[in-house]
Amino acid sequence: MNRIFPVFLIAMSLSVKFAFAQKDESEKKSDPDSTGVVNSVLLPSVAPLLLFDEDKEKEAKKEKKKKARKNIWFGIKTQRGYTRRELRGQTYYEFFNYTDIAKAPDPYIRDVYWYDARNKTINSSGYAKGVGYLLHGPYERKVNETLVESGMFYYGTKHRTWMLFDDQNVLQDKNHYSEGWPEESRITYYDQGAQSIEEITPIQYSLEEGNYYYFYDNQQIAVTGEYQYGEKVGLWTEYWDTDNSKAARKREIQYQEAPYTKKFRPYIRAEWDKDGNLIYRKEP
């Protein structure tokens, strides 16, 4: 009995330590700020190549008539689809083409449009391989029999010319895109010849609209954030320069969740050192 008792105490001590270790590990995993090092689809970072080619646009229009009958768009065989819903006595239609090619979306693009065949809806966020089908080819939206929007998709991103009409089918607005990027976007380069991008500011209707990016000169992501109607919204993140070896958050700044929110003052939500250790966090 005397020999068994010390062994029992040792076993109890080890089990308690193991339980606390598991608890600590569990708390770390549930705490998104436990480390500044994060998994990032932007690493290793290759900045997007933004080329708005007018000659390519003209050539594509010539091919449009040839391939429309076969549902081949940008060299890809597609299928046609549509959605229909009733709302307040009106019928809303969406006619589109989609592809079953499960291409990973460009991580730099905010809005990626896809067809949810189960719920028969079109969504602009939440796409993942195997979840739905990327829109690819022409798109039209109608209210009753009146066309109110038309455009083209390229693997889920708005592409070429998009037009908006009123309920009398009178043109109200026209926008141009290149694989999801508004062609008004401002782009600056460290090296124009090598297309080494320094900053991308998405512009639509002469206002900042969409995902903003700033890069280090080695093309690693330095700052990410979002604009809506010319206002910074949501969480903006600054990253340490690690020469593309990892994504290590440096600082997060919280902005208003919706544009034009009165009396909201941005604040630093959290900061980390270069090793990923949390050095500051604003408690709720």
Give a verbal description of the structure.
The structure is a single chain. The protein has 284 residues and is mostly beta strands. It has 2 domains: 35-45 and 185-284, no CATH class; 51-183, no CATH class. The protein contains 2 helices and 22 strands. The chain has helices spanning 4-30, 54-68, and strands at 37-38, 72-73, 76-77, 79-87, 90-99, 114-116, 121-123, 133-143, 146-154, 157-165, 171-178, 181-182, 186-191, 196-201, 203-204, 207-208, 210-215, 221-228, 231-239, 247-254, 267-272, 278-281. Strands 1, 13, 14, 17, 18, 19, 20, 21 and 22 form a 9-stranded antiparallel β-sheet that branches. Strands 4, 5, 6, 7, 8, 9, 10, 11 and 12 form a 9-stranded antiparallel β-sheet that branches. Strands 2-3 form a two-stranded antiparallel sheet. The radius of gyration is 25 Å and the shape is globular. Keywords: Signal.
Keywords:
mainly beta, 9-stranded antiparallel β-sheet, 15% helix, globular, signal
Summary, kept brief:
It comes from Algoriphagus jejuensis. The protein is 15% helix and 45% strand. It is mainly beta and 284 residues long.
Q: Layout of SSEs?
A:
Elements: H1 4-30, E1 37-38, H2 54-68, E2 72-73, E3 76-77, E4 79-87, E5 90-99, E6 114-116, E7 121-123, E8 133-143, E9 146-154, E10 157-165, E11 171-178, E12 181-182, E13 186-191, E14 196-201, E15 203-204, E16 207-208, E17 210-215, E18 221-228, E19 231-239, E20 247-254, E21 267-272, E22 278-281
Antiparallel strand pairs: 1-20, 2-3, 4-5, 5-8, 6-7, 6-8, 8-9, 9-10, 10-11, 11-12, 13-14, 14-17, 15-16, 17-18, 18-19, 19-20, 20-21, 21-22
